[in-house]
Design the sequence.
C-alpha cells in the first residue's frame, strides 16, 4: 500500500469518527435550540391567550383545538393546585398532511374569576425524522467532499513533496556496488529528506570505499605473494636438479612443486580478476574475433586431440569487436579451455561465431550446471585438481566489463553464449 | 659469458646466481638501484637480468641508461608486476624479453640462451650437440648432415631441452613454454606425452646420439655428453 493511500485510510477513519460525533452534537444542539424557541413562543402565546381571556370570556369556551392552536377547559381547584406547567411532544392530526404529525404542547393552568382553567397551547413542531435525514445527507456530502479534498491534496501536494524520496529510491534501486557509479540526489529543502540523503550518501561512500579497498587488498595480496612463491618454486627446482636424489625424494619434491605451481596459477588468476575488476586493461582496439578463435583452437588442438575431442568452428558471420586484445584472448582461452577440460573422452567442442555472438557448446557430464554457481569464484563443478575454479569467473568479469551478456543453457550439451550487442544501445 | 643479475630479493638473487653458475656463466650481482647503475657504467656484460622494482629507483631507468650508453647487453626483465604496461614500456626501452615471477628455471635458461644467441651471434650461430646440429634461424635440425623433419612443436620441445640439457625439466615448464601460458590449467599436461613419443622416435630413427629420459612422471631430462 502506498504511503499516500495509507494516510488517506487513516484520514477517512478519523474523519468518520470526528464528523459522526460532531453531527450528533449538532443534532442535539439544534434540537435543543428549536425546542427552546418553540417553548418561548408557546409561553408568549399562553400569556396572550390569558390576556385575551380576561378581556373576552368567550375565549374560555374554546374547549377543543379547531382553528386556533389552543384549548381551554375548567378543572377543579384541588387538581389545579397540584398542577405544574409542562411541555410535551404529542401527535395531532394535520389536515394538509392527512396524517398525525408531531406537535409541541404547553399544558398550564390559570385562574380567572375564582375558577381554574387548564390551557393547552400547541405549535407545530419540526419533523425530527426529516431533520435527521437532511442532516445525514449533508454530513455524508461533507464527508465525501473532505475525503475527495484529502485525496486531491495527497496526490498533488504530497506527491510533489515526496518527489526527492522517490528520486532517491529510483537511484538506489539501480545502484550496483561493483559499478562504482555515483548516486545523484535531488535538490530538496525538506529537512527530513536532507537527512535521509546525507545518510544514504555516507552509507554509499563507506560501502564503495570498503569495496574498493577490498579489491585493492586482493590485488596487493596476490602481488605480494608472487615473489615468495617464485623463490620457493625456484629453490625446489634447484633441489630437483641435484643428482643425488632418490626416486622417493624426487617424487616428494615434485609433489611440492606441483602444489606451488597450482598456488602460483591461483594467485595469477586472482590478480588477473582484480585487474579486470579494477579496470586496468585500458587500451582497446578492433579485434577480429573469427581469427582469434581460430588461433585459440589451434593452441588447444594438441590437448583436444589427446582427449579425443572433435573440435569444430562454425562461422556464421564476421565478428569485429572493440576491446582490449589481451582480454579478448583471455576470454576465449578460458571458454575453450573450460569446454575441453570439462568434457568426456571422445566428446566434442563446437564454437560458433556470429556477427554479434559467440557460442561454445560442449559435451560433458549429463546434467545441467548451476548457472549462478558456475560463474562465481571457486565453485568449479569438477574435482579436477589442476583447475583453479576461476576460469569462468574471469570470463564473467570480462563480459561484465564490456557489458556483454553471458548465458548458459543445458540441452543435453552445455552451451555458453556471449551476446556482444549492448541491449540498450 | 658474463651475466649481471639485478635483483633486490636476497633469496631470489641466490636462486638465480646458483642456477646460472651451474651453467658455467660468470655471474655478478647488484641488489640496489645505485649498485646496478655503477656496474652498468663500469663493466660490460653479455646479458643482464633486471628486476623492475628496486630500492632506490626503477629498473626502467636503468634500461633507459643502457639505451643511452648504446650498450650491446641483452636485457631480460624479471618482474613480479606482470602488468601489461610494464612489459610494453620495458620492451619499448630495448629490453629483449620479459619474464614475470614466478617462472621456471628452465624457462629462464631458455630465454637467456636465446638472448645470448641473438645478441652475441646475430642469431646465426649453429648449436651443436653430440651429432646434432640446430640452426635456430632456419629452425632446422640435422643429424650428421641428414635433415631431421620436425613439426613446429617438436622443434620447440627439442630446442627447449637443448637449452636445458642435463637438467630436469618439469612437464609444466615444458607445457607452458611450448603451448603457452594459457594452457596452464590443462589437466596435468599428459597430452605432452604423445608429442614426446613422436620426437623421441624421430631422433632414434635418424640415429641422434642423445637421449630424452622420462623422470618418474615428473618431467624429462636430456642427456648428452
Sequence:
Amino acid at each position: 500500500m502506498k504511503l499516500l493511500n495509507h494516510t488517506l485510510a487513516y484520514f477517512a477513519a478519523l474523519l468518520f469518527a470526528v464528523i459522526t460525533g460532531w453531527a450528533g452534537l449538532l443534532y442535539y444542539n439544534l434540537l435543543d435550540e428549536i425546542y427552546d424557541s418553540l417553548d418561548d413562543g408557546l409561553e408568549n402565546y399562553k400569556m396572550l391567550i390569558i390576556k385575551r381571556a380576561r378581556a373576552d370570556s368567550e375565549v374560555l369556551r374554546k374547549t377543543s383545538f379547531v382553528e386556533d392552536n389552543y384549548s381551554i377547559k375548567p378543572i377543579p381547584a384541588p387538581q389545579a393546585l397540584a398542577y405544574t406547567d409542562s411541555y410535551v411532544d404529542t401527535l395531532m392530526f394535520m389536515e394538509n398532511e392527512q396524517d398525525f404529525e408531531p406537535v409541541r404542547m404547553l399544558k398550564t393552568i390559570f385562574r380567572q374569576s375564582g375558577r381554574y382553567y387548564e390551557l393547552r397551547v400547541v405549535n407545530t413542531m419540526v419533523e425530527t425524522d426529516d431533520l435527521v435525514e437532511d442532516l445525514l445527507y449533508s454530513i455524508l456530502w461533507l464527508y465525501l467532499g473532505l475525503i475527495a479534498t484529502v485525496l486531491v491534496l495527497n496526490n498533488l501536494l504530497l506527491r510533489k513533496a515526496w518527489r526527492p524520496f522517490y528520486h532517491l529510491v529510483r537511484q538506489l534501486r539501480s545502484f550496483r556496488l561493483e559499478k562504482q557509479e555515483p548516486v545523484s540526489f535531488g535538490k530538496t529543502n525538506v529537512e527530513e529528506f536532507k537527512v535521509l540523503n546525507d545518510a544514504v550518501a555516507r552509507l554509499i561512500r563507506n560501502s564503495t570505499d570498503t569495496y574498493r579497498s577490498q579489491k585493492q587488498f586482493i590485488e596487493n595480496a596476490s602481488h605480494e605473494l608472487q615473489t615468495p612463491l617464485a623463490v620457493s618454486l625456484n629453490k625446489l627446482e634447484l633441489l630437483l636438479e641435484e643428482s643425488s636424489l632418490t626416486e622417493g625424494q624426487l617424487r616428494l619434491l615434485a609433489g611440492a612443486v606441483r602444489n606451488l605451481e597450482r598456488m602460483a596459477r591461483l594467485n595469477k588468476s586472482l590478480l588477473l580478476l582484480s585487474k579486470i575488476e579494477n579496470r586496468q586493461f585500458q587500451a582497446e582496439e578492433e579485434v577480429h574475433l573469427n581469427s582469434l578463435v581460430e588461433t585459440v583452437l589451434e593452441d588447444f588442438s594438441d590437448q583436444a586431440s589427446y582427449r579425443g575431442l572433435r573440435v569444430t568452428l562454425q562461422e556464421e558471420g564476421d565478428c569485429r569487436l572493440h576491446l582490449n586484445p589481451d582480454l579478448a584472448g583471455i576470454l576465449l582461452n578460458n571458454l575453450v579451455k573450460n569446454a575441453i577440460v570439462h568434457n568426456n573422452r571422445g566428446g566434442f567442442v563446437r564454437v560458433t561465431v556470429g556477427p554479434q555472438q559467440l557460442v561454445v557448446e560442449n559435451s560433458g557430464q549429463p546434467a545441467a550446471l548451476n548457472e549462478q554457481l558456475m560463474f562465481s569464484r571457486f565453485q568449479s563443478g569438477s574435482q579436477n585438481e589442476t583447475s583453479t575454479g576461476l576460469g569462468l569467473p574471469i570470463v564473467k568479469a570480462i563480459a561484465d566489463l564490456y557489458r556483454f551478456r553471458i548465458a548458459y543453457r543445458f540441452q543435453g550439451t552445455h552451451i555458453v553464449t556471449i551476446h556482444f550487442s549492448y541491449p540498450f544501445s | 659469458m658474463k651475466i649481471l643479475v639485478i635483483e633486490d630479493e636476497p633469496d631470489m638473487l641466490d636462486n638465480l646466481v646458483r642456477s646460472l653458475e651451474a651453467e658455467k656463466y660468470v655471474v655478478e650481482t647488484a641488489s640496489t638501484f645505485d649498485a646496478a647503475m655503477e656496474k652498468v657504467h663500469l663493466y660490460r656484460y653479455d646479458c643482464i637480468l633486471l628486476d623492475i622494482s628496486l630500492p632506490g629507483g626503477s629498473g626502467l631507468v636503468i634500461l633507459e641508461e643502457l639505451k643511452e650508453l648504446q650498450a650491446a647487453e641483452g636485457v631480460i626483465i624479471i618482474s613480479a608486476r606482470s602488468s601489461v604496461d610494464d612489459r610494453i614500456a620495458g620492451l619499448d626501452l630495448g629490453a629483449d624479453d620479459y619474464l614475470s615471477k614466478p617462472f621456471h628455471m628452465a624457462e629462464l635458461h631458455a630465454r637467456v640462451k636465446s638472448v645470448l644467441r641473438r645478441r652475441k651471434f646475430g642469431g646465426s650461430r649453429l648449436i651443436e650437440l653430440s651429432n646434432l646440429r640446430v640452426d635456430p634461424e632456419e629452425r632446422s635440425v640435422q643429424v650428421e648432415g641428414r635433415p631431421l623433419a620436425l613439426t613446429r612443436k617438436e622443434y620447440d620441445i627439442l630446442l627447449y631441452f637443448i637449452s636445458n640439457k642435463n637438467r630436469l625439466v618439469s612437464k609444466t615448464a615444458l607445457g607452458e613454454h611450448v603451448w603457452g601460458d594459457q594452457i596452464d590449467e590443462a589437466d596435468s599436461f599428459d597430452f605432452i606425452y604423445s608429442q614426446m613419443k613422436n620426437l623421441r622416435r624421430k631422433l632414434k630413427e635418424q640415429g641422434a646420439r642423445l637421449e630424452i629420459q622420462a623422470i618418474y612422471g615428473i618431467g624429462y631430462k636430456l642427456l648428452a655428453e
Remarks:
- Chain A touches chain B through 48 residues (CB under 8 Å).
- Residues 65 and 197 of chain A are 81 Å apart (CA to CA).
- Residues 3-55 of chain A form the longest helix (53 residues).
- The domain at 285-419 of chain A is CATH 3.30.565.10 (Heat Shock Protein 90).
